[in-house]
Amino acid sequence: MGFKGIFKDKSSGTKVGLLFLLIVVSVILHTLFAQACVVFFSDVELVAVDFMKFSNQSSIDAVKFIQLLSAIGLFVFPVILYSHLCDFDLKLNFNFNRQTLLLAIAIMLLINPFIAFIYELNMNFNFPEWMMFYDKKAENITKYFLRMDTVGDLAFNLLVLAIVPAIGEELLFRGYLQQTFTKWLGKPHVAIIITAFLFSAIHMQFQGFLPRFVLGLVLGYFFYWSSSLWLPIVAHFINNAMAVTFTYPALSYYAYLTENTATWQQAFFSFMAVGLLILLLQKNLSIKKG
Hints:
Elements: H1 12-41, H2 46-50, H3 57-85, H4 98-110, H5 112-123, H6 129-145, H7 151-185, H8 188-201, H9 209-226, H10 230-245, H11 264-289
């Protein structure tokens, strides 16, 4: 592929402008392509998609498809193209072993009670009406998205809500933003905090801001300690995939594993268990680097 590194020696401002331009153009083109596919290959009216009128499963699938391509256009394609044009290392390597991977997965499995407890605290905040509008809209869309009748619906939801967000959001937030802030500020811990804040804020779900911020911190440190984007990608996927999978009717018995409620005792046990596993993960990575 040509043009590799042609913007490598440009100023930071030029590179940021380039990425912004790539994101805008990519989102527009991917969204228009998705809408064209809906118009030509389905019987769903585009106006119904635009106003989120989920009258049937076909309209829901159409919105999912547009969401899928829009996410690729926002997160995946522009960041990968930017990395090629600027010769930017996204660190898509495997600088970790199987034990590290298993520890990261275990952390994501055990952290939910602590996250649920924080979510309940966050819910008690008084938010302005305009913030609640975005929360209710997101909650409504999620409710329709998670309506699954077949294994095909489950597979499609895993693609739309777990695989693409895990890859795309990690490419932008940890792969690009966290590394860029670290370079600019020279303080990796501050960069992780800023990136986690932006990661949570961009979702526009204010009642879930704090738990998503905490998850952003965990993913940020996974990347910082491992120097591999694949570790937070896998962890991010596990987090999202659990919420999707346990909503599927045949697996709904295990939905309690991802419930947004937890006692302080459960949260405390979760926090202590995750803390211990994080220490083991960090030690494992330090030994590997040594």
